[in-house]
Amino acid sequence: MQTIIEAIDVQKNFDAVEVLRGVSFALVKGETLVVMGGSGSGKTVLLRLVAGLIRPDAGQIRVFDRAIERLSEEELLPLRRRLGFVFQGAALFDSLSVYENVAYPLREHASLDEAEIRARVVRNLSLVGLGGEVLGLLPSELSGGMRKRVGIARALCVEPEALLFDEPTGGLDPTNSKLVGELIRELRGGVCDTAIVVTHDLELARTVADRVAVLIDGRFATIGPVGAVLETTDSAVQAFLAGEAR
Ligand SMILES: Nc1ncnc2c1ncn2[C@@H]1O[C@H](COP(=O)(O)OP(=O)(O)OP(=O)(O)O)[C@@H](O)[C@H]1O
Ligand SMILES: [Mg+2]
Fold it and tell me: Is there an atom of ligand 1 within 6 Å of 53 CB?
């Protein structure tokens, strides 16, 4: 089984704050790992470390079988291009149309002509259930659920081998959250079968996870299949899950 992303005892501090105090996991090809944890527990920090956007203070992060923590920006780029990022809050460019938002990573990374870019943009929007009528719209003219979908289409545009989602259902109502969860699950059937999904959303975890990890006090308090995590006897995890289920 091919390991796509691996963290080995990763630690990360910001000034005096120990955010990650020893996180370890291995994500294998074809697997979706959901990372849950309270606000400020370090979920986004973990994704940023995996993307090589920040460096750990200790421990190792391996992406496509290469230790990345000492790589230069130039050495990181080809690895980063094999990953798709769906940022917290969709993070679209407000002044750019849907078309230009989705095309953006293609213009950055690939040497495609405009016809190829257009074909990929249209294809990836259709994968997330959006038609040509949204191409010319600005992000402000879209619903929250549509913005998330555009963010996912943008991440898919580079044909990533693994997707990293940061709160893909954050801020959405239950109906749209459910639709986005179903979309993420469907993507596994061919488009991109490997993912890390960071979320507060237990329902999303149930929909997409092969394994769930719960980040508490800088470590994974538990990691395992959804059912096992829900039945945990660890009191800190129980308390977290009880809080999320409210
Ligand atoms: N660049 C930074 N400089 C200083 N502190 C930071 C930085 N990035 C993150 N932190 C701190 O690290 C901690 C974890 O932040 P992180 O954004 O990973 O939380 P999170 O689990 O993603 O929370 P949320 O669910 O609210 O998105 C917080 O205390 C945050 O203030
Ligand atoms: Mg976050």
Answer: no
